[in-house]
């Protein structure tokens, strides 16, 4: 990718901002969920004000309208400075934005997009018990009725694995309005208020101590028909826009963030007296090479997108290579940290590279599922990129 004077000027601008405003000791300030939320909101507000929070949004928004090369510069510098990722607002600025920007009415865009920049948080109500990888199998029902002079959808059902739902004010919701025809055909896409009567949220306590996900229970929740995105029964196509938003630049940012986090592994090597341990140094060298390869793959993906030659499966390659490197990174850190890291280190909420090696190690395996399981990504690569035969239905080992 060409290094132009404009890109170098942007890089200096971002670095100057980070020297003045990057949150110090943010891991220590994220030891509880409440502290994590406060830290996230403060950092998001600063980035919005500086114009670095939403470079992928249109130019009419502060800091928006930047090209892919400019976005890469911003994410590189944020990763190098080891700033906290915007996890609390991630669904809002990527999933909700992409859906509203590409599929919603002008009135819906005007109502919701500015409020995201004011701190309104969104969650995603897609997956259900029994409808995860097979998302089209959702059973949450919505019936269209007239109530108190209003035309509404009355929704009942359950959603699961909704990121940060316990902190959200709005929800991107998939519901079933018909069982006729193919299962994808009866899905409708709604925008739901999380404080609506009948909505209850229960955080899921994870094995590493975090509560990143939650269940959402819906009991006769009324959602105005005006909150529908697209046509009734055509929500599956809208959902594809939502799901596509979390690939690409997000994976590039994560890759560069992991490269910066290698410094913490090097610190462990020195602190535990492994400076001359050839076995440890070999493993560290292999990890550094693997992480560099992931960054190179992400760079190639971005270059393909800039030049309009992105292929179906390119994002899947980045995703799988990143998830494998993340497991290797966390495994080596956990091994070097010894018993102290496994049993004593406090939990840090809200990142994949927290420096708490036991939590990071357990969380690294979740990344093989999040955003589309590794097996699904392999099928995409095999069938859509390599044009291999489709996997037979009902085939099992």
Automatic annotation (TrEMBL):
Transmembrane segments: none
Domain annotation Acyl-CoA dehydrogenase/oxidase N-terminal: ranges: 4-120
Domain Acyl-CoA dehydrogenase/oxidase C-terminal: start-end pairs: 233-386
Pfam families: Acyl-CoA_dh_1, Acyl-CoA_dh_M, Acyl-CoA_dh_N
Protein's UniProt name: Acyl-CoA dehydrogenase
Superkingdom of origin organism: Bacteria
Organism: Novosphingobium barchaimii LL02
Keywords carried by this UniProt record: FAD, Flavoprotein, Oxidoreductase
Cofactor(s) required, per the database record: FAD
GO CC terms: plasma membrane
InterPro entries attached to this UniProt entry: Acyl-CoA_Oxase/DH_mid-dom, Acyl-CoA_Oxase/DH_mid-dom_sf, AcylCo_DH-like_C, AcylCo_DH/oxidase_C, AcylCoA_DH/ox_N, AcylCoA_DH/ox_N_sf, AcylCoA_DH/oxidase_NM_dom_sf, Mycobact_Acyl-CoA_DH
Entry's Gene Ontology molecular function annotations: flavin adenine dinucleotide binding; oxidoreductase activity, acting on the CH-CH group of donors
Domain Acyl-CoA oxidase/dehydrogenase middle: 123-221
Family stated for the protein in its record: Belongs to the acyl-CoA dehydrogenase family.
């Amino acid at each position: 990718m060409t290094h132009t004077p404009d890109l170098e000027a942007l890089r200096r601008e971002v670095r100057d901002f980070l020297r003045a405003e990057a949150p110090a000791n943010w891991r220590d300030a994220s030891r509880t969920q409440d502290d994590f939320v406060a830290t996230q909101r403060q950092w998001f507000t600063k980035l919005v004000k500086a114009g670095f929070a939403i470079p992928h949004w249109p130019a009419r928004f502060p800091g928006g309208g930047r090209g892919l090369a400019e976005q890469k510069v911003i994410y590189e510098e944020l990763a190098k400075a080891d700033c906290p990722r915007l996890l609390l607002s991630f669904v809002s600025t990527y999933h909700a934005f992409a859906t509203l920007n590409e599929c919603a009415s002008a009135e819906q865009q005007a109502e919701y997009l500015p409020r995201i920049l004011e701190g309104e948080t969104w969650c995603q109500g897609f997956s259900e018990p029994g409808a995860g990888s097979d998302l089209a199998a959702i059973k949450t029902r919505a019936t269209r009725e007239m109530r108190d002079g209003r035309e509404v959808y009355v929704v009942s059902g359950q959603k699961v694995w909704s990121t940060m739902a316990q902190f959200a004010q709005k929800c991107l919701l998939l519901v079933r309005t018909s069982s006729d025809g193919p299962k994808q055909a009866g899905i409708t896409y709604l925008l739901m208020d999380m404080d609506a009567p009948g909505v209850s949220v229960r955080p899921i306590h994870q094995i590493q101590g975090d509560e990143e996900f939650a269940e959402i229970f819906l009991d006769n929740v009324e959602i105005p028909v005006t909150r529908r995105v697209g046509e009734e029964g055509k929500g599956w196509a809208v959902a594809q826009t939502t799901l596509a938003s979390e690939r690409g630049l997000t994976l590039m940012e994560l890759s560069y963030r992991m490269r910066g986090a290698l410094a913490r592994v090097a610190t462990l090597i020195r602190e535990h007296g492994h400076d001359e341990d050839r076995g440890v140094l070999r493993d560290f060298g292999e990890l550094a090479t693997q992480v560099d390869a992931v960054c190179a793959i992400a760079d190639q993906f971005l270059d393909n997108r800039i030049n309009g030659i992105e292929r179906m499966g390119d994002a899947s390659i980045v995703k799988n290579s990143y998830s494998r490197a993340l497991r290797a990174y966390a495994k080596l850190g956990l091994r070097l940290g010894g018993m102290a890291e496994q049993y004593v280190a406090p939990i840090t909420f809200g990142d994949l590279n927290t420096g708490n090696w036991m939590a990071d190690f357990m969380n690294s395996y979740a990344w093989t599922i999040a955003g589309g399981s590794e097996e699904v990504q392999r099928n995409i690569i095999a069938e859509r990129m390599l044009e291999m035969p489709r996997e037979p239905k009902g085939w099992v080992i």
